[in-house]
Amino acid sequence: MANVIKLRKGLDINLKGKAAKKKADVRAAAEYALVPEDFVGLVPKVVVKEGEHVKAGDPLFVNKKFPEVGFASPVSGTVTEVVRGERRKLLSVKVKADAKQEYREWKVRMPEKMDGQEVVNALLEAGLFGYINQLPYAVSATPDVMPKAIVVSAFRDMPLSADFEMDLEGNEKEFQTGLTALSRIATTYLGISKTQAGGPLASMGNVEVNIFDGPCPAANASVQVNHLCPVNKGEVVWMVDPTAVIFFGRLFMQGKVSLKRTIALAGSEMKDPCYADIIVGHPISDLLKGRLDNLRHIRLINGNPLTGKQATIEGYVGGHTSEITAIPEGDDRHEMFGWIMPRTKDFSANRSYFSWLFGKNKEHCLDARIKGGERHIIMSGEYDSVLPMDIYAEYLIKAILAGNIDKMEQLGIYEVAPEDFAVAEFVDSSKLELQRIVREGLDMLRKENA
User: Fold this and answer.
1) Hey, which residues does 38 pair with through a beta bridge?
2) What is the DSSP track for 132-176?
3) Looking at the whole model, is its pTM more than 0.85?
4) 191 in helix, strand or coil?
5) What is the pairing mode between strands 274-279 and 23-24?
6) CA neighbor of 376 nearest in space, from 394, 388, 393
7) Tens-digit pLDDT profile for residues 342-353
8) CB crowding 54-72: b at 16 or more within 10 Å, else e
9) pLDDT by residue (tens digit) across 316-347?
10) In 3D, which of 409, 15, 422 has the Cα closest to residue 220?
């Protein structure tokens, strides 16, 4: 019987443009790109040259500090360009795909007969280990420290986020194999939602299944870590995206790297929102052909509206991206009397607008405007009301801004990830970039403890 954990704090934001449970016909692209920035905390070093031919599974770049951690090419083909930015920062590695794909091959293995170190070594050899994240610091994991536990959250609850069960369909065996492999490393916890309790996820073996019943951000793996296996100083917990678990399962079952996944094409500006089967690194321009009227006054996001990154039509699907969303920019709107209007269509977390009278199921069409300037922090408890973790969020933010490392540690910074503050950033009357602030605090602490 799965353990049920009830969370009361949080906020569900119902946005217009959710992807319908159908799949668009998307053809293979001519060129793919792997972007190091998708793997937080990584200092990349390129290990291929322009004009070199690679197979799917060959490393394109590695972690400079841990060269054994490579990042596999999603396709076979010719490296066409190593793109660099200011101060030679590596932005992406582009590969022109072969008409017939070639895969680097490994042995087909049975994870239940392997020990933890053998599983880690297999993931390192195949260039998949970098898809694991860790607490503390919320960065791509490193193999020098083994975790005390591993947490996999098999549902998503951010606005317009993709339903993982669309990705799971037809990949149940691979997902179970991936979970079994992770369980050989450390105790593995699988978090599912209340609606998934009667489905195949609830009966997965070799893991401890927990049902998280509550509003967003209950699906965040770091929130689940806080309730299942809190991180103390000196400890490490790994967090694995459920789609990455499928990648791991394919490696052990098929002996090759396959980065095929299902993502959502969503948002109020997207024509016919739906799902698409693609490979990591697919060009966004190919996915959005005929789906947008024009790019003027539209915010493209690599991810969901709260935690995703602003994208351009020339971008590529990220390594951890589960949706591409398009919402109004809002730069073409001019409202008479501004905030003083009654606003029956806009969303409000605290019933400031009359729109709450229409119920929680009403879909809202929000744009990317901040609607106000940065202000002083107001100690009103509004962060704590939407953060289902046992920390004092407002005091933690103040400690980060002050650069007080001792206070940060006392207030629980080792347990948080920037996306935990996404909903708090949405409701913040001070208009602060809370996710950026938390990221800077984590980077500061990581540098100090190095």
Assistant:
1) none
2) EEEETTTEE--TTS--SEEEEE----STTPPPHHHHHTT-HHHHH
3) yes
4) strand
5) parallel
6) 394
7) 776 777 777 776
8) bbbbbbbbbbeebeebbbb
9) 999 999 999 999 998 887 777 666 667 767 77
10) 422
